[in-house]
Design goal:
alpha/beta, single chain, five-stranded mixed beta sheet
């Protein structure tokens, strides 16, 4: 099993570009435009490399203006939501503990040749650190910036070991912050979210997601009482051993993710220090959706 968990063939990468009527040449041209713009933004702490710029472009359907907004927010959000971004270095004891309690895996199968596949499952009951799981996922998203070239994902979230007390920790405030980050920074392109082995109290989760997710996104969430849905996507050879298949186990896949995070440790150490200097910002931050969303979860007190 290859440790290069984000590997895709060159043909697949170019096919992804074609979805947006782009070629290698035009993508390179767009990247130059973004880099030239970055050089005019003294408040930003670094000039992103070409690989990361192209990933931002891809996630934003090659919209130059949206890409500028997302790159700016990529740095700005670290000061907006410090309780997330000040304590997420993978080498910290908290994050090391999370990687032991939860399998957060990338499966080697690419669905329809376009969608990256994720599995999420806790390793035991009452081991669901909700916020820390999201921080872990954001670290994986950081690795994807420099290694991946797929623009959307299919997620299988297994609730087999999730207790009612775990579910009650998924508050609207926390969920709002999560979707704010994924939509306004990492441009989440969720194809489908399959919640499998869901217990009766999954209705609590449904209610929270419906409140905090955009309707179009919520329509992509499906709930199943067992894991049989997996057989529609994976052959016996591909299906993880955890679900009766002969494919790699979730723990094996999880170990590969941990190896990737370790490989990119220098970047995470660098991110600890990267913050926007607002006194140097050329124009006042003016993104009504971002600021409105941010204000809404600051005031939200519903659990």
């Amino acid at each position: 099993m290859s440790s290069n968990i984000f590997h895709i063939e060159e043909e697949t990468r170019l096919k992804t570009y074609e979805l947006f009527e782009k070629t290698e040449l035009t993508v390179n041209e767009d990247a130059v435009i973004i880099k030239e713009w970055l050089e005019t933004q003294p408040h930003l702490p670094e000039i992103l490399d070409d690989v990361r710029i192209k990933y931002f472009l891809l996630r934003n359907k090659f919209s130059i203006e949206k890409t500028k907004q997302k790159i700016d927010m990529y740095y700005t959000v670290r000061s907006l939501i410090p309780d997330f971004f000040d304590n997420m270095n993978p080498k910290s004891s908290i994050m090391q503990d999370v990687s032991k309690k939860i399998c957060f895996c990338i499966h080697p199968k690419i669905i329809d040749g376009l969608h990256r596949v994720f599995f999420i499952k806790t390793n035991g009951p009452s081991q669901f650190p909700v916020k820390e799981l999201i921080l872990h996922a954001l670290n994986v998203a950081e690795v994807r910036m420099c290694e991946d070239a797929l623009s959307s994902e299919v997620v299988f979230f297994d609730m087999a070991n999730i207790s009612l007390s775990d579910v009650k920790r998924i508050t609207p405030t926390l969920t709002a912050k999560i979707f704010f980050i994924y939509q306004n920074v990492y441009s989440m392109r969720l194809k489908s979210l399959y919640i499998i082995n869901s217990p009766s109290y999954v209705t609590i989760v449904t209610s929270i997601l419906k409140t905090t997710m955009k309707p179009k996104l919520f329509e992509r969430v499906q709930f199943f009482e067992d894991a049989n849905i997996l057989k529609q996507f994976f052959s016996v050879d591909e299906l993880p051993k955890d679900y009766g298949g002969e494919g790699p186990s979730l723990q094996q896949l999880n170990d590969l993710v941990k190896e990737k995070l370790t490989f990119h440790q220098d970047r995470f150490d660098q991110l600890d220090k990267l913050r926007v200097n607002e006194s140097l910002r050329p124009e006042k931050l003016n993104n009504d959706e971002v600021l409105g969303f941010y204000g809404s979860f600051k005031k939200l007190n519903v659990d």
